[in-house]
Design goal:
The complex is a heterodimer of chains A (467) and B (485). By secondary structure, chain A is an all-alpha fold. Chain A has a domain of 209 residues. Chain B has one domain. Chain B is built from 20 helices and two strands. In chain B, helix 2 runs antiparallel to helix 3. The chains are: A mainly alpha (467), B mainly alpha (485). At the A-B interface, helix 15 and helix 16 of A face helix 5, helix 6 and helix 7 of B.
Chain lengths: 467, 485
Amino acid sequence: MIWPMIIAAGTAVAVLLVDLVFPRWYAPFGVALAGAAATAVSPYLVQKGQLALLCAEADRCSYVLDDTARLVAALIAALTAFALLLYAPTLRARDAPAGEVGFLLASAMTGGVVLGGARDLITLIVALETLTLPLYALVALHRRRDGAVGAVTFFTTSIVATAVSLLGAALLQLQSGSVHLPYAMREDLAGGRPLAIAGLILLLTGFGFKVAAVPLHAWAPTTYDGAPVPVAAYLSTASKLGGVIAILFVARAAVEGDLRVTAGGTLAVLATLSLVIGTLVALRQQRTVRLLAWSSVAQAGFILAPLGGLLLSSSASLFAASLAYTLFFLALELGAFSGVVALRPTEDGGVLDDLRGVGRAAPWRAAMLSFALIGLAGLPPVLSGLFAKITVIQALLDVDSLWLALVVALISVVGLAVYWRPLAALYRGSVDDRPPVSVGPFLPLVAATIVTAVLSVVPQLTMSLWE
Amino acid sequence: MVSLDSVLLWTVAIPLVGAVISFVVSDATGRRVAALTAFLTLVISALLGLQQKAGMWHELDWQWVPALGLRFHLGVDGISYPLVLLTALLTLLCCGYSIWHTPTPGLGNHLGALLLVIEAGIIGTFLAQDLVLFFIAFEVVLLPMAAVIAVWGGEGRRRAALKFALYTLAGSVLLLVGVVSVVVQTGSGDMTQPAKLGAEAQLWIFILFAVAFAIKSPLWPLHTWLPDAHTEAPTVGSVILAGVLLKMGTYGLIRVGLGVTPDGFARAAPVLGVLAVAAIIVGSLVCLAQTELKRLIAYSSVGHMGFVLLGISTGTAIGLQAALVGNIAHGVLTGLLFFLAGAIKDRSHTGQLAELGGLRERAPWMAGVLGLAALGSLGLPGLAGFWGEAFAVVAAYSRGGPLWTTLAAVAAVGAALTAAYLLRMLRKVSHGPLAPSLATASEAHWPEVAAWAPLVFLAFLLGVVPVIVVDLAAGASLISGAAGR
């Protein structure tokens, strides 16, 4: 049996049932939280060894539970639990229905848990859709905020993205006769190579929407800012992780199927555009969550940059660097969003000036938020952010991709100017009233800070996880 | 004999621990904790001078992140030891000074904590013997220094702080690319025995290094962050900035530029030399037209660091020794000048030279110390500034050839200009009729005297016996080591 999936799906069902018989906000909330926690630990406690399911042939399985799948399942479940905790003040204030929120998040979690083990294009796309589909509803599901614009933007662009991915998958299947990775990328049909190249580019483009890489990013700022901040946090961490994993799987298959240059070229373009445009536009944002959204676009560029090195080499260290950066990023991004929620538990993200003086009024929360922001800028004393940048630049220089390394290095200078503004706002002036304290958002904030601190001392924990 | 290797760790760890403590305790206690920590660090780092020998005196080498080629590798030798001591001394003086006087908005404990973090970063830079570790320590200084300027600085502090942060970060990311290139190509970031790089790789890696260190030093035309940062920074910020932070650039050029990429250095040296002399001339000319006291001293740094860079760029043992002496002398004298400028601005509430004058009538002692610092700075024989500047010119001249002879001659003219603008400053500030802004100025207070006295003493000591601070053999061995590769 594959326990992580079953627990995750079971959680979704249990939340619905509990909400029916016991309609207090904390009942479905508690069940969802417990289910997410159980899902997070289950891959490491229950299932040992490697497990393959739905095999067409010995090496053509649709699902394989290996170490990567375990890692992804645990991360997605943990991020789901944190998103729930961030949502606690809103649910408590009855601004969003707890049963629906718990169910939708648990459903998304189920998709993410499956994703890490997906080994064919159909399973991969379906898992990714299951991860993001519930989020359309979550974006709009808030009593006091009008999230409709964000939800519709997200919905329409995602539909297009899925259609593009499916078209790509269909083209690949057409020319190779297989949907299993990596066979789907191998040339089978005589003269099928143009089809394969077009299919791969379309597939990566579709997945690019999920990680909000430029030019497929336009939905992200509107959606993040329209959504309740905890949902924006989930979009920027769990959903982005899903997209990154899908891209990593496809890129690995492309290397094995002799489409390395196509994958590398596509991803190098996405990475460069995301880095440059995401960072430059973030400079001008006045709203906190919009700034984080554009910074999240730029961070997608950092994540994809090592894969741009596939243009020149098929070294596995490129994949390892991309995954390592993603892990550093997840802790920092969770810290940044949790910091915003912890300082404004039931409000929206507000404008940067709303953070004024908070450094004096709520020193600990402000310090942890600053810690995350400095880490995203990639500077000491938050060494994990610096190690993340070094990892990417080293992987790129290792394959002689000097220009991409220089883009990464120089754009992180501009990145400092982006994160400088919220940092300066936090420590400018002083206000008398202390922001309300809420336990829920505090836990993810503390957890993210601890993980970041640990990764600052032993960054090698993230660096050898790619098999 | 007891091994002093673990002392290396303490010189970096003590300031960090002290920073955390002074950050969380109350303002008044925090200031004292910071000063006490700075004192302990000075004592501990002075211990490193025991048991000197050829090469690295003490070394500490631990594995840290193998995947990035990063080792926790510290070492001290004759080149880094004086700089470490200078850093510890200036931090102590600044922390002690802050007990007595912290500009608005107060929070002296936070200021002390940041100064200690900066100290740890600078000392870490001087002690690091692993390239990646060197880079990390180099970066540690950035944000705390920007925060010191942004919180405690003058009117335009936020702009100046951001400019400082972005400018120096632009330099250090190039350093990062260079450092990682070396690690990737040679498989090791060891600075004590750098692996041999190909000639082409050396040239472009050295260019990356040179730009990074030129911004930090700063070398004309990459100096434009410095006047703003200095003018807006609080007194202690300016002292640390001019006294030791700039030295990270020149030290890096010697240790990393010359040590790791000697061939690249040799090929690019003439360009460096020309830029260094340009910096001397431009810095001096700007100073002659300068109307603001702190800005004038800031620009004088551009000129003085030009002499240091000229010494380095000659690539000769004598030039390098001149650079090492010049580094320390500049740290002492400019630190003193900024302390004095801060004291004058505290009294007059203006830095405009036109609004100052007659200081010697109200505060003869303070005017005397200012005169001494200015004379030292212009390179009067017998004071600290003389050796570095004179021998940088001598080194350039002794390289021979039309280029270096011209550079030596132009640099000598620059030295004369230096005298002109410093005497102009003295005339405007100390002499002339008493300005209204200084009408009620008080004589130096004892905390100020305590902060100045060690620097005055060092200015004389270095002027008479420079060899006590600079290990001549270390410079020579670095040159011959680099030539051997």
